[in-house]
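Because discrete structure vocabularies remain unfamiliar, we reproduce here a specimen of the format, pairing a chain with its fold in token form:
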Amino acid sequence: MTTAERYQSVSAQLFDQAHVELEAGDLIQASEKFWGATAQALKAVAEDRGWPHKSHAQLFAVLRNVVNETGDREITRLFTSANSLHVNFYEHYMEKDEMMTFVEDVRDLIQRLDNIQNSQ
């Protein structure tokens, strides 16, 4: 298994675990796991392209690179939803109903990133 494949695998595991946490009512842990799933999916793309991806700032650079590569500007909006969930881990301001829109965006983003990754 390559490093990029490992990132994709961890992304899928975190996404599944986030749903378990969400259903259990642990919105804080669900928020962070949805963010983690997103970050791991971005890292998979970055890894194969040789882009640095070790910090939060570098993940934003990866995001810009992906948008430039694909022309899919919607990826930026979807990523903003994932980042909002990351903030929720620290700030605890969302309720489950509010989170669900962000969760759908995360699902869409990870699918797009996986498609990019798998099309190489």
User: Anything to note?
Assistant: The chain has a mean pLDDT of 96. The radius of gyration is 14 Å. The chain has five helices and no strands.
